[in-house]
Amino acid sequence: MTRNTDVLVIGAGPAGVGAALAAAGEGTRVIIVDENVAVGGHLRWSIATQRGTIGDLTDARGTAIAAWAVERLRHSDVEIELGAAAWGLFDDRVVGVTSRERSFQIRAGSVIVAAGATDAAIPFPGWDLPGVLTSGALLRLMHLHRVLPGRRFVVVGADPCGDEAVEALELAGADVVTRWRTCHDIIAGGDGEVVWLDVPGARHDTDCIVIAASRIPDPELILQMGGAAVYSAIDDCFVPVRSETLETSISGVYAAGDCAGVLGAAEAFAEGRVAGLAASNGAGLERALGELAELRASPPPHEARRPTLPAPRDSTLVCRCERIAAAEIRQSIADGAATIDDVKRRTRSGMGVCQGIYCLAAVSMLLQRERGLAPEVVSPMKVRPPARTVPLAALAGTGE
Amino acid sequence: MDDSGSRRITRHPILGELPAADSVTFTFDGRSVLARADDTIASALLAHGIRRFRSMPETGAPRGYFCGAGRCMDCAVTVDGLLNVAACTTPVRAGMVVKTQHGLGTWGPS
Description:
The complex is a heterodimer. Helices cover 28% and strands 26% of the residues of chain A. By secondary structure, chain A is an alpha/beta fold. In chain A, the strands form seven sheets. In chain A, strands 1, 2, 5, 6, 7, 8 and 20 form a seven-stranded mixed β-sheet that branches. Chain A has a four-stranded parallel β-sheet with strand order 10-16-11-12. Chain A has a three-stranded antiparallel β-sheet with strand order 13-14-15, with no helix packed on it. In chain A, strand 13 and strand 14 form a beta hairpin. In chain B, strands 3, 4, 5, 6, 7, 8 and 9 form a seven-stranded mixed β-sheet that branches. Chain B has one helix and nine strands, in the order E-E-E-E-H-E-E-E-E-E. The radius of gyration of chain B is 14 Å and the shape is globular. At the A-B interface, strand 10 and helix 3 of A face helix 1 and strand 6 of B.
């Protein structure tokens, strides 16, 4: 079953919302899809102030912006599909979407990928124990479901999202044992769950370790279609090459927001507006470009830079899904693996269910170190659909 | 004390009082769990301090809630006989039969 539309927006975070509202404002038919149960993206679980202006709101909390987005979209002509994960981008701008055990296609005149970023991971001994989680996972749990996943918290890692996590924990009345601003030389331990964290010089009694690593752009759908990508030093990963109007090297496919480089919410929204207006030939495009340029010129809300990954010990798990330790990855490199795909084929790292989100940054770092390679030449893993798990029954069209 | 779990943040300086919600009961490894209707399986289990959701193939090592986004699958549980269900993104439903997924799991009726 194929639906047709003028503009398909993938992701309903600030960039996607900006794109959908802008395009719909031009009278264009717009469908927006998001795998979550509500629009707003990561702003839904952020109570921190988002600097800048989005729509009618200035310096508002993430939760307030998400609520605003819900209302604005509801009063627009945008068709909204929630719980709907875009898993493949194909020729002629046909996108495969899976929702509630069904799969269907959307064919669009233009596609705007606004799929956001994922929490980065920093491997350290014991990081696979229950009780270790990413800062995004913590905020979702605390702010969407009002649950604390432990009693005595440690936040590790240098990223400013760790400060947001500490603030959130303290506001919730949780006991923050320590904020340790690096993941070098830390070891977590416990019997089946986190019980302690060793840092140089001390052992902390903790049952919950929050990893404060930055977020990594997720341009997977663009890479699937062979879109040109380039290394971004500030994100320490590959991001899509885009024109001034945010079109990728794939004709009619745009990338806006965090999926092309981590931004503050206001800038992501402004990128969405540019892409939405470009995709719908909107008259306000020049002005939107000017607004985006102004935002880009002003200082970023924080230094959006990925901290250096510590070189994992040989026994530390790097690939969580396939349970591959750093020693095995180092061995594959010593045996001749020179690319991420080489390492993947030899070790299975990246073949697991997460498809490399949580291990390939470390694999890349090991390739760089062991082979003396610059990050720009360590190309991302070759990605193929599906970008999300899809039941075979859904693809066969025989799902219930 | 909210009996949908001792780990609930019942009052919050920004989010306010925890709003009332309908209750939902499901089972986890045969044990009855009281949840809020707006819970995911993961949030309901974590609210009761249950943090181990699966054990890995070969090693049997326990995994729990890691990414919260349905990507890492550390939280994969078996639900009503269906394997590899991400607890963190699956809403609770009354009468769900949820089990720890051991290794690759076993297909078949619960």
